[in-house]
Write a structure and sequence with these properties.
The chain is built from four helices and five strands. The chain is α+β, with helices and mostly antiparallel strands.
Length: about 130
């Protein structure tokens, strides 16, 4: 069940200011072949009222990890939407062997985090 204190999708219709970053996983096999070892897996979205994340099929383990993080944030009363450096902290603190995050992108094209996630996942899966 989603916690309204963490997740917020705004209900759609009117575009809202969102910040997102793409979550890339490290793939050792790609590295061994001389290819870029980072594969887009999903994205994190911070809304004016909360947080949301979505992942491509095949990355359920990563999605489970994020759900554990969110549960911890709820227990600690951490609200990503109130912390302007939230995404930057996670990008800078991740081990490159666990993956990496893309740059934080600010947009006002979508009326909800769900719309944003669907559109970006479609783009990165192509």
């Amino acid at each position: 069940m989603r916690d309204p204190g963490i997740y917020g999708d705004g209900g759609g219709a009117v575009p809202m200011k969102l910040r997102y970053m793409i979550d890339y996983v490290y793939d050792e096999k790609r590295f061994e072949k001389g290819l870029d070892p980072y594969v887009p897996a999903g994205l994190w979205v911070v809304t004016p009222t909360g947080f949301d994340a979505g992942y491509l099929p095949g990355f359920e383990e990563r999605e489970d990890e994020i759900n554990w993080l969110v549960n911890g944030w709820v227990e600690q009363d951490i609200k990503p939407c109130l912390n302007p450096g939230f995404m930057e902290y996670w990008r800078e603190s991740r081990s490159p062997y666990r993956g990496t995050f893309g740059e934080t992108v600010e947009i006002e094209e979508y009326g909800s985090s769900g719309e944003c996630i669907a559109a970006i996942l479609k783009t990165i899966s192509a």
